Prior knowledge:
This protein has helices at residues 40-46, 88-91, 133-136, 139-146, 167-177, 190-198, 226-233, 255-259, 272-280, 299-306; strands at 4-10, 14-20, 28-37, 54-55, 59-66, 75-78, 81-82, 102-103, 116-120, 124-126, 159-163, 182-186, 203-204, 214-219, 234-242, 263-266, 290-295, 313-317. It is of the alpha/beta class.
Amino acid sequence: MSSNIRAVVYENALRVVERAAPQAEPGEALIRLRLAGICNTDLELMRGYKGFSGTLGHEFVGEVIDGPDAWLGKRVVGEINISCGECDLCRRGMRTHCRNRATLGLMNYDGAFADVFRLPVDNLWAVPDGVSDEQAVFAEPLAAACEVLEAGVIAPETRAIVLGAGKLGLLVAQVVRLTGADLTVVARRDRPRSLLAQWGIPSATAPDLDPGMADVVIDCTGSAEGFATALDLVRPRGAIILKSTYAGLPEADLTRVAVDELRVIGSRCGPFGAALRLLSDGLVDPRPMIEARYPLADAEQALARAAQPGTLKVLLIP
């Protein structure tokens, strides 16, 4: 491709720039953006997380315009970890923890907030015909929400609390609800509380809940204070699942982890196949979470809107 494209770049400041279109390397596809979602991690990168510099964006649905014939013209979403396939962790099947990995829009690999971007073909998932772009753009965070079940600590009899009713927390709540667990979501604002009620999921504020009442607490607050709140709510020998990433460092009484014999489980990326099935089958519908849509050229305003407290999903449209 010889034409220029627009890209949303953060290099000490946020800008929409024009640059040469990317060239696909062997094993990669070129993807034309159809829709992109702004994630809390994008906002944290701009606050100093990982010392990031480059093109933002890792939640997307697009169309393959260059690559293997079998993929041309297909609507796709994509896994964000680009692995080497050769290190000891890749050989053990832990490709998302590859020692040499790059990460779409987060680390050493240009992101999806661009008219056209690239991604390895091995990372691509075809979007089912019955799934709209506005559903498919949630595939990556919904896959991350599904990953909480991989920890093996949530069952129908589990008393679970989701901390944080933001973009990720609302997806996690919808996934955990499907297990039949006794679920409560800590939500402070009216809009997420209304959505939770619409989905039949109880909500509360943290002061409403008894200390030590939960078997499992899932921290989706995206803030350093979330872990301390999770410690207050989990019972002895319970589990805390951490879904939050943030630029700051948490301040919490870690002695309680030892004294109360708690399990602390990190949880990051998850199964795209499961996420697409949930969307296709209508078991999770994230579309009510969409709050605003902005053209790619207005990405600065879009990210500013997404950073406002209480804002749910903001989308970029090329």
